[in-house]
Each structure stands twice: as C-alpha cells, then as structure tokens.
Amino acid sequence: MLARLRSNWSYLAIAALFVVLILAPFNWFLGQYTTLLIFIGIYTIVTVGLCLLMGYTGQVSLGQAAFFGMGAYISAILTTTYSFNPWLAMLIAAVITGLFAYIVGYPIFRLKGNYLAMATLGLGLIMWILFKQLNQVFGEPDGISGIPYLSIGGFVFNSSFRRYFLVWAFCLVVLLISQNIVRSRTGRALRAIHGSEEASESIGINVNQVKVKILVLSAVYASLAGSLFAHHLRYIGAQPFDFLASVKLVVMAVIGGLASIWGAIFGAGATHVLSDEVLLRFGDWDVVVYGLILVIVMIFMPEGLFVKLKELFERFRLRYRQRGVEH
Amino acid sequence: MSSAQFVQYLISGITLGSVYALVGLGFTIIYAVTKIINFAQGEFVMLGGLLSFTLIHRAGLPFVPALILAILIAAAVGAAMYLLAIRPSRKASVVSLIIITIGAAIFIRGIAGQELTKDFVRLPSFSGEESISFLGAHIDPQALWIIGTMVVVTIILHLFLNYTMVGKALKACAINPVASSLVGINPKTMALVAFTLASALGSIGGVVLAPLTPLNYQAGIMLGLKGFVAAAIGGFKSPVAAVFGGLLLGIIESFVVAANWGPFTSAYKDAIALVVLLFILLVRSGRLAEEERAG
Amino acid sequence: MRNYFKYAVVLFLVVSLLALGGIGCSTKEEGGATPTPAATPYKVGALFASSGFNSTLGQTQKPTVEMLVDQINKAGGINGHPLEVIIYDTKSDTATATTLANKLIEDGVVAIIGPTSTGESMAVKTITAQAGVPLVSCAAGSVIVEPAGNNTWTFTTPQLDYVAIDRIYTYLQEGNITKIALLTDTAGFGAAGRKWLVNQTMLSKYGLSIVPDGDQTYGTSDVDMQAQLTKINGTEAQAIVCWGTNPGPAIVARNMRTLGMTIPLFCSHGIAFKSFIDTAGTAANGVIFCAGKLPIVDQLPTTDPQKALLEKYKTDFDAWYGSGIANTFGGHAYDSLMMVVDALKAVGPDKAKIRDYIENDIVNWPGTGGVFNMSPQDHNGLPRDPKQAMILVKIVNGQWTWLQD
Questions:
Q1: How far is B70 from chain C (nearest CA, A)?
Q2: What is the pTM for the complete model shown?
Q3: Residue closest to B96 by CA, chosen among A243, C313, A250
Q4: Cβ–Cβ contacts within 10 Å for residue A325, how many?
Q5: How many domains does chain C have?
C-alpha cells in the first residue's frame, strides 16, 4: 500500500513537472518569465555539478564560476573571432574546461575543508582576473559581443521561446545523467568518500581519482552552461564570473539541498526568483535583505530549503496517515 | 632601479602590508579559536573608516573620541554578529558557516551603504600632509601612523595573549579546544572574545587607513580578501605570522609593479598574490591535511 | 527516497507559480506618474546602474529621470498623456540588465533609455533591436553605435569614448608635450579609456608616445598607487594621463603630491564629481580634465546655446536631490529621456516612428552633453571634433575653472 501510494504520487509529480516545464514559455501561462526561466535552467546545470561535488563527495568549491566563465568565453571567442560552428565550440570548451579541472584537481584535492575552500577561492579569483585582464584573448573591457545564436540546420534559436526549450532539454538530460551516476556504483563510491575517505581507501576505492572525476564532470557541466549563457546573452563580460558569482552558485546548491539532484532546480529557481522578483520590491535595501536571508536560511535550514520542505511534506503525510484515513 | 626607488617601493609595500596585516590578524584570531573563516572581516575595516567619518560629520563628535567610539561600535557589531549569526549555527558544516559569514558581510555592507553613506569618505590626516624624506624616498606621514599602529597593536596583542588570563585562555583554546574546555575554559566565551577582538583590530585598520585613502561602503571586499591572503600566508596560526604574511603580501604587490616584467604588469599584482597563496597552500598541503583531521 | 524529490519539485513549482503570479504585478518602480483618467500613459523604460561598481556614474541618472517625469506630468504630460517611466536597477550586472530589458519589453514600453555602462549597453542592444524597441543609451562606448548601419535601433547620448581622449591629447600636443605615462583603472571606464589611450593611430596623430614602463594600471579597489607612480617617476614622462572614476584618480593625485611629483596630471570626465575634490583635498589643484559643459556652466557666456538649459537642470536638480550633486552623467540621462519625449510629442507611442524621429529629426538639438545632430550615419549626434564636443576644466583653489584653449 505504502509503496503503491508513493509511486503513484511520484509519477504524478514527474508528469506535473513536465507539463509545467513544457507549458511555461507560452504567453498565456508563464511566458513573461521566459528569460528568467532560461537563466534558471542554465544555472541549474552548474548547480547539479556542484551538488555532486559538494553534496555527494563532500568537497567544497568556491570558484565554480571560473569553469562557468571558461565555457562562456571559449564559446564566445571561437564563434566570433574564429567563426567556429557553435556546437563544435561548445564541445571544445567543455573539453578544455574539463582538462583544466583534471590538471588542477589532483594537487587541489590534497587539501581538505577550509583549506580546500581557500584554494578553490583563489583559483576562481585568478581566472576572473585573467578574464578581465587578458584583453587580447578575452576582449575586455568591452567584452565580446556579436556572439551568434545556436542553430540546428536551418532552425535558429533566435527567440527566448526557442532557447527556453533548448536550455531545459540540456538541463533535463544533465539531471537524468546525474541521477544515474548517483544510483550507480560511482554514486555509492561518492557517498562512501563523503562518509570517510580513509575507510573508502581501505575498501579499494581510489579516492583521489573519484574526486577528480567528479570535479571534471562538474566543470564540464559548468562549461556547457557557460556556452548556453553566451549564446543566449550574445555578449560576455567578466562580471558574471567573479567571487560573488561563485558564492551565489554555492548558495543555489545549498538551498537546493546539497545531496539532492532534483533539488538543484529548486535551488537555482528559488535564488533567481528571490533576487530577480522578490528583492526588487525592496529597492535600495535589497542587498541588506539578501544578506539577512542568507544568514537565516543557513542557520535554520543548513541542509537546504528544499530538503526542509521535503521534511515538512513528509510530516504532513504521516499525520494524514495517522488520522486513520484509508484508501 | 635606484636605491631611492627601492626604498620607495619598500615603504609603500610595508604601508599597504600593515593594513593587510591588521585585517589578517583578525582572520587569524577567529580561525585559530573557532576554525571559522570570517568572510566579513574586511567589512570591519570599512566600518572603522565610515563610522569615524559619520560620527565626526553627523554627530559632531571631536576627532579622537569619534575614532575610539567607532572602534568600540565596530567591536560591538562583531560581537553581535557572533551571537546572532554564528553561535546559533551549532555544528554547521564548513560550507554553511562560510555562507553565513558571507551573508553577514553582505548585510553589514548594505546597512553601512544605506545608513551611513554611499560616498567615499576620507578622514583628515593625523599629522598633516607634508611628506617626509627618508633615504631619498618620500613618505606620507599617515603611512608612518599606519605602520606604527600595526606594530603597537601587534605588541599589545602579544602581551595580551601571553600575559593575561583571558589572553592565555584564548591561546589555549586555539591550541586545543577539547583540553581547554576540560580545564574550565568555555569555548563559546572564547569565540565571542575572538570575534570582538578581530572586529576591533579590523576597525583600527580602517581608522588609520581612512586618512590616507578614501573608503566607501564597498571597500571591505578587496581589503578582506587581501587580509585573508595575508592570514593564509601566515598559516592562520599566530598573530606574528599574520603580520609577516601581510607585510610580505604588500611588498610582493609593490615589487610586482616595480618589476613590470613582460606579462606581469601592475594589472596582475592581485593575481600574483593569489598565486603565492595557492603555492603556499599546496606546498603545505600535507601538514594542513593532518591539522584538519586533528582539529 | 527519491520519490519525494518529485513531490517537492511540484510543491516548489506550485508555490513559485503563485508567488510569481502574485508578485509579478507590482515589482516595478514607477517614475512619478500622475495619470489623468482619460488619457493612457506613455510608457518608457529605463535601465540604470544605481548600485554595483558603476553606481558612481549611475547614481544621478534615476533621480534626473524622476525629476523630469515629475516636471512633465505637472505641466500636463505629453499631449495630454501622462509620462510613465519604469526604472530598473541593473546592479551594474550585464545579465541582470538583459533580464530587465526583456521585462521592460514585456511591460510594453515604447523606448528604453540607458543603460549606464558600455558593457550593459552591449548586452541589451541586441535584445532591444530584435524586439524593435529603440534604445537610447547613456554609455560612451563607440562600439555601441558604430557603425550606425549595424545599429539601427540603438543611439547613445554621451560624447564617445575616443572623443575624450582626443580632447586631452589635443591639449597635450598644443602644449608641446611628447612623452606621456598612463595610469588607468583595470576595470570598466578606465579600461575602455586605455584602449584608446594606447592606440597607435591616436598617439601618432598627436605626436605622442608612451614612455617605456609608462603604461601602468591600478585596480578599482586599490588604496595606494605609489608603486606605479614611483615607476613613472623614474621615466621621462612629461605628463600623466589618468583614466578612471573615483577614488582612483584622487588617490593618484594625493600620491603624486606625497612623492613630490610635479609633472601635470590629466584626467577623464570620470572625475567630474565634487567628491574628487573632497577626497583629493589640496592635491586636486592643478589637475586638468575634460568634460561636458555642466561643471562650469556659470562661466559660460550668455550666447552659449546650452547655457540656459544647463543652468535650469542644475538648479532644478539641486532642489530635487541635493545641492552640488548634478553631474554630466545624470545629464546623459536627461538627454536620452528628452529625445524620447520629443519623439513622443511628435509621433506618439509608435516604436518604429520614435526610432525614425530620433534618427532624422534630432537636429540642432541642444542637450546637456552638447548640440546633437543625429543622422542615419551617426547615432550619437555629437561633434567628433574634440574641441567642439568637450571642454577642459582645471581645478583651481578647489573650484572647477574653465580652461579655454
């Protein structure tokens, strides 16, 4: 009975989610928020990577915006100065970013906890300074403009409507892949490492290799998101890739619940709705409110808002149960 | 490079480095006692400067009392931050604590911008603006105040930590929190002391810096980051190490500009500092990992 | 376990739908509209960097617009229709700017003024162009409107970036200076300026060269530039050109004083703020910068076509926002808005017609930045001859003095 109820609900939930996602960009539904939803989709992709890295493997990255930025810049440069095919550029960007993560990963992961946080912070900042300064390569101060749209054959993604579906298609694929990883042997290895690295080593898990693999994966995700970002805005400057951006990404991951893949949608969504819609109403005080909310959410809901909501939902369900309602 | 130029670079490096050192001291104290990296540390420097200015110009207080009051208020803010934001988080994870301190920093910065001022403020120099000649180099007298304050503060801190009850308790807590609680030292009280002390130190930095260079409500971000690097170079362990880290950072920055080698133009001096940080972290990664596990 | 994920996702979506639906209606900040029941308001959008790192430039733009809207509506609106300007804060962030631009387009505006900075303008212009909404930017990047053929829907009102450099370099050449050093901010305003300052064609045109080790930069948040200045002090530079916004140049001026450097310091209009004089103190004296005419409006002859307009702006703004704060950047917002207003007066709320009007009918149009002459080939409209486009100001005894040359 319990199992059947659960699975009924979950099918309903998936269906509802898909229905909403498909209908969202239409004007009679949520059409006016299409751009917001595109950004949510893009950031969800980065957040999922962070969730895998921070939630499942237990590492920290305060410099994830660097990977995001690399994807965006490489796509931008290849498609403007060198007129590459945007899809090829996206692929190359992902490969380069992944390689970079691989090279950086081994030395970085010798550090733990606070020191790892510091090192990733430092790396993120160095990348950001490079983005700002290497004018010949990265086109600052005016940034890189005129980035072309993505297109498949003759179908050009030149409207928000079309790009919405493109971005969310990527996003859902990434989510499903990550879901699979988590439920596979690798996923169990990740959780083992989170639990105890020494214990994992002792049962034959090559801890460093797994950590680096996940870093590379999260970097690739971030790079893809960055490319999508570039082809959406069609202009790239260094500003969206600074320290505060990395912090925002971590916040999204945490709010969504670090150890939750689908929670990433929630995390990215809640953060964006917060800053783009809710905070607007506070005018000049929006920054103050943002800081306050961060502190409060972290103190009272450190596992994340999403997980807290799940808990509440659970408690309601159980209470509903206990009142002896039968089906 | 002539010897006069060398001295000039050295002096400006030491001046900047002293400010970084003061901020770094704050980071070090808090980290040593509580193992928390307080990303709001830079904001206290900003508060020192902005509060002094506001007290002088809006509340009409005379110069010296305004400075002292500003430091006290900043210290109080630090204590409040600990009590309201850190203590309630009990056994939160590293990530959560980092986000909490960042959230607190954003909050403090926002309030300062709204309630104090959004403009750049500058305090009058403590002893005039005539530059002093020294070995062929020119020094702004305020720079001497900054360096001097840093030295005095470090000495006082050293005496405090080694010769007073509270100080020694603080030190004990840093070395071994479990053992110290066994002998009756309350780690929560020590944490409170650490935060209050760190904010006071940061704001002292702001107060002596404000006459030399204009500050605004966003000044804390960069200064915090540099102070953090200073503390990291110093290993987050002892105040003296933090001071050394700060001075080293300031001097490196100054001489990177001086060298102007090929791609390492002045634009990259910030990046160089970070590379130094990374290098040190990686070189000591073995020992640091052990400390993390033990602490 | 995982089944609950889906639960909460649905919950989130439902909640956010409600939230978006409920909140979506009232997130706009309106610019002082006093609607008359009969006539429908004319809606214009505005994007300014009221916070973030461009806020020094953007700070006076929003109040300028609010003040103008208030004046216009009190005088009966535009042909009886109230003017409604929806102003959003881009927070100096390009991604936010694009989201807000889209929002404004959804809100049904017939034109958008701003954004404050070149970066934001570059990001926004593709969106507005695609939606067929005219954009009248307040940023100086020449890339925004040149070539005009590729930017049919985009205009901008400040003097273009290279004009400011032309102005300073003209003066240097006339002063027989040949060797210079640069000290520029690595970000935004300063970096954009540097691009032109080091441009070889530009330098050769005025017979200038940058001394070896003379191309120095500083970070926006740096508190001390003595190292860079010491470097420059050891060169043969006869003048220093500093490009950036407060507090950088103020610190540079003070550091130069401390180091006992006597060569002249030239700055950009990025220091056309009272706060530069406040923060630099006595070191400000002797600094020369280029600007629009607003800082020295009281010294203009009565025959100057802009004088009356500038004086009115200054007086009105002093009363509206605070004394002594009016600056040329707020002036760009003034120019952008008033062009749109004139277009609305002539052709009504038709986006394409407004675009056409601005392109063709803004001729001999006095604004705060200068006298504009827009055309299909020139979507800026200000003279490219530096002496006509900008004036030089010298700070003497803590006051702005018109330096006529």
A1: 20
A2: 0.83
A3: A250
A4: 7
A5: 2
Instruction: Supply the range of the domain harboring residue C332.
Output: 29-159+311-374
- Give C353→chain B minimum CA distance, Å: 40
Residue by residue, DSSP assigns C222-284 as -S--HHHHHHHHTS--SEEEEE--TTHHHHHHHHHHHTT--S-EEE-GGG-SHHHHHHHGGGG
CATH class of the B3-294 domain in this structure: mainly alpha
Spatial separation of the C-alpha atoms in residues C359 and C377, rounded to whole Å: 9
A114 with B225: Cβ contact below 8 A: no
Chains meeting C at 3+ CB pairs closer than 8 A? Answer: A, B
Interchain CB distance below 8 Å, A142 and C195: yes
Cβ contact, residue pair B13, C227, below 8 Å: yes
Q: Which two tokens stand for residue C286?
A: 């002797």
Structure tokens at C398: 């803590």
Q: A111: pLDDT confidence band, cut at 50, 70 and 90?
A: confident
Which among A113, A247, A302 has the least Cβ separation from residue B292?
Answer: A113
Which of C197, C242, C245, C168 has the alpha carbon at shortest distance from C403?
Answer: C168
Q: Give the pair of three-digit tokens for residue A53.
A: 């890295």
In angstroms, the CA C307 to CA C298 distance is 8
Across the interface, of A7, A160, A310, the residue whose CB is closest to C8 is: A310
pLDDT recorded at residue B286: 63
**Chains contacting A (3+ CB pairs below 8 angstroms):** B, C
Neighbouring residues of B88: CB distance < 8 A, sequence distance ≥ 6: A299
A309 touches chain C (CB under 8 A): yes
CB C213 within 8 A of CB B181: no
A281 touching C, CB under 8 A? yes
Query: What is the residue-level pLDDT of chain C in tens, covering all 405 positions?
Result: 444 455 545 555 555 444 444 443 333 333 434 444 457 899 999 999 988 778 888 989 999 999 999 999 999 999 999 999 999 989 888 888 888 898 898 888 999 998 999 889 988 998 899 889 999 999 998 889 988 888 999 999 999 989 999 999 999 999 999 999 999 988 778 888 888 999 999 999 999 999 998 899 888 878 888 888 988 988 999 999 999 988 899 999 999 998 889 999 999 998 998 889 988 888 999 999 999 999 999 999 999 999 999 999 999 999 999 888 889 999 999 999 999 999 999 999 999 999 999 999 999 999 999 999 999 999 999 999 998 899 999 999 999 999 987
Do C205 and C243 fall within a single domain? yes
Which positions in chain C touch B19 (Cβ < 8 Å)?
Answer: 223
Highest averaged pLDDT of the listed ranges A164-178, B166-180, B183-197, C342-356:
C342-356
Q: Give the CATH number, domain containing residue C238.
A: 3.40.50.2300
Domains of chain B, residue spans: 3-294
Does residue C185 sit in the same domain as residue C154?
no
Tell whether C187 is covered by a domain. Answer: yes
For residue A127, give every residue at least 6 positions away whose Cβ sits within 8 Å of its Cβ, in sequence order, or none: A63, A66, A69, A70, A241
AA identity, residue C116:
T
Do residue C149 and residue C176 come from a single domain? no
Chain A residue with Cα closest to C123? A235
DSSP A173-191: HHHHHHHHHHHSHHHHHHH
Interface predicted TM-score (ipTM): 0.82
With a cut of 60, say whether residue A208 has pLDDT above it. yes
Residue C247, both tokens: 């507090």
Alpha carbon of C87: minimum distance to chain A alpha carbons (Å)? 11
Closest partner residue to C13 (CB to CB) among A17, A133, A235 is A17
Is C89 in the same domain as C144? yes
Q: How far apart are CA C117 and CA C121, in angstroms?
A: 6
Return the closest-CA partner of residue C169 out of C206, C222, C209.
C206
Q: Which domain holds residue A102?
A: 36-242
Distance from CA of B262 to the nearest CA of C (A): 10
